Amino acid sequence: MHPAAPCCLDEISIMANRYLGDSFLLPALEPDNRHWFTNGQLHVQFCNSCDAARYPAEDVCFRCQSTDLEFRAIAGEGVIESVVEVQHPVHPLLADRVPYNVAVISLSGAPGCNAIGNIVNSDETDVSIGQNVRAIFEKATDPESGEELLIPNWEAV
Amino acid sequence: MNGNAVVVGIGESEYYKRGGAQETEFQLAVKAISRAAEDAGLELSEIDGLVSYMDNRNDPLRLSAALGMKELRWAMTPWAGGGNNSAAAIQCADAAVSGGYASYVVAFRALAQGQFSRFGSHFSGMTNAAGPHAWTHTYGLISPAQECALHTKRFMHDYGITQEALCDISMACYANAQRNPRAVRYGSPLTREKYHDSRWIVEPFHLYDCCPENDGAAAVIITTPDRARDLKGEAVPILATAQGIGPNIGIDSFQGRWFPGMFYEGVAETIWQRAGIRATDVDVLQMYENFTGPVMMSLCELGYCEPGELQDFVANGALEGPDARLPFNTSGGNIGEAYIHGFEMINEAVRQVRGESTCQVDKVDLSFAVGGPGYAPGSAVLFGRD
Questions:
Q1: Are strands B200-203 and B105-112 parallel, antiparallel or unpaired?
Q2: Tell me, which fold does domain B6-116+211-384 have in CATH?
Q3: How does DSSP classify residue A72?
Q4: How high is the pLDDT of residue B97?
Q5: In chain B, where are the structural domains located?
Q6: B288 classed as catalytic
Q7: How far apart are CA B246 and CA B265, in angstroms?
Q8: For chain B, N or C: smaller number of CB within 10 Å?
Q9: Catalytic pick from B264, B288, B304, B375?
């Protein structure tokens, strides 16, 4: 099974401000998450031997134990598998952001892979299980390297 | 059934609200172990094994010195997770005495959450989302309540389960705690109105769906049936134990292959096969409730009912009191008695076999305790009469 063709970079939606606030925690870039957080396009790890998709990335394929793994672009589309509203902030930077939503999103083109994200720019009725969503990217700057981050998030289709 | 090892003593410190203990966490551990030894009629110096779990802060070398142990022959914790390993700790102690590696092994859990960082608030100091947390903390998914809520929400959606089921589970814990003077919530009953009026933590969890934080310690002493015959403590056989994790689960619980779920199908299959019984044969159940939602899913995975039957299964006081259809968390559990990461439930499961519970079920032959659902690997232990 081959992943869907990637969307064009110039068509991606970008948010200038982050859903949880521009001062909220940024991901620390590592080899296994760099694709996800910087490309402006969703990349998921696939096994070149058996084609299994794996999210988050792992050093070894869980299906065939191959180490021949690569990141492949997938369409920035998904479905809300679950979503909750967080009312109690457990980090001081979230104190004035509650309530906010957190969702589990199944990724189109990466069978079995579910990502965590927020549903942004959406009416309350759109934030529900079964809703189709597409990727939107939050712009930020990595404080270590000064590199631009494009953090995938989601909006209702 | 196994029965090659027995619990011969149980003990606990007083249980306190978070920050309520005057003793240090280490003193609480020593108190619980000393009381378990006293219950067994065993000299502390005879203890030769220590088992705990979940980032245990009470170092076995420090404890062995403080307890005056002659020799520490067995010291370990099960790998991974948190309160899910409360029953796995019993399995490790059972393995030690059954295998002849130690004679009297203590399994225990001690925590003084007032003296260390609060769950959740230890995230306050974080300045970035690093390692495995990059995939979750970046999006504000930080606490166990939030993680379990995502599973619970989908499970409720799939099977048409309402908020009342969560309320029923919390109310059972509170009702049973009203019979137990050790319980932190003793004297603080919960009503359905109070439950629904309480604030949301993360929908669908109200405040009362979440266990509190507490200070306290609990311990048991495990030995062989032969050695137990020379001790005064009433021996309670460990009939079966299991710990486990299904295929490809690893550390990320949200993947499509097993979402939503609590990872207890494998533990259920193993323990019922080892014991030669079914879930419904058990007389009394202690099930770890960090939050009420995971209890619903675990009841189904362990074989008590089908997901579509869950709402009715827990309704109308079906879990409350000694005469409940399914006697459940009879000491009040994590929510009502004290959150000692599920170890207070191990003591309660032993009490039920001895006939010493404050919510005593009639004729207990099989008493079951389940470690914390929601985090892999899962674990469970079955106590009973030979």
A1: unpaired
A2: Peroxisomal Thiolase; Chain A, domain 1 (3.40.47)
A3: E
A4: 98
A5: 6-116+211-384
A6: yes
A7: 8
A8: C
A9: B288
